[in-house]
Amino acid sequence: MLAFAHRGGAYHPEIEGLENTVAAFRHAVDLGYRYLETDVHVTSDGELLAFHDAVLDRVTDHTGSLATTTYAEVQRALIGGRERVPTLAELFDSFPHVRFNIDIKAAPAVPVLARFIQEREAWDRVLVGSFDGHSLEAFRRLTDGRVATSAHLLEVLAFLLLPSARLARLVTRGRPVALQIPHRHRRVTVASRRVVRRAHAAGLQVHVWTVDDPGEMEALLDRGVDGLFTDRTDILRDVLRSRGQWEESHEGL
């Protein structure tokens, strides 16, 4: 079972308001998390940032679009009044023994991320995804399929709508290694038992985001999902511990 600290565990009471900061990720690692989830954007001068939003406005004391802001300007913005926006390089250097689930949030980040992974030979430290199929396909081409990727939206739909796992695998050409999906979308259960079985039959894992309720976690684990993203890193750890699915060796990494 893969436990992903979503943006470092954005709603853990001890770090709320510090999402996607080195402090948040350090908190998750200290809890024992080995898999960290983050997003990437690039600044106007090409710096790869670990940040969710396209703008600084929501979580920092500055405003403006990352795409039109220089790295030096971004560094003056503080998250929660105290933490800088980190680069992806800072996270890799700060936590050398963890793996990263990286969501590409903007097309300009694609070549920068591909180059970053290649320069660091970090092929086995990342799982990369994007809602945007064009961005993910471009990333796959640039990395020659060497980096594990999750399914983009059209590939997810193949597993949801086509009549068999074999056909879905054929249509997606075996490229994704995981479906990363919500539990529900409006009134539709996306991460259903049927979808989990189908993904597993095709050799894919199923990771569900973003789950903070213990009852929902239990239901999804009973359904056989392979990973959960959570903002409440404390709750997910407690649930996994109670089920004997938390590796105590995670702690202290």
Automatic annotation (TrEMBL):
Any Pfam family the entry gives: GDPD
Domain of life: Bacteria
Start and end residues of each GP-PDE domain: 1-240
PROSITE patterns: GP_PDE
Gene3D superfamilies, alphabetized: Phosphatidylinositol (PI) phosphodiesterase
GO BP terms: lipid metabolic process
Any one GO molecular-function label of the UniProt entry: phosphoric diester hydrolase activity
InterPro entries: GP_PDE_dom, PLC-like_Pdiesterase_TIM-brl
Name this polypeptide is given: Glycerophosphodiester phosphodiesterase
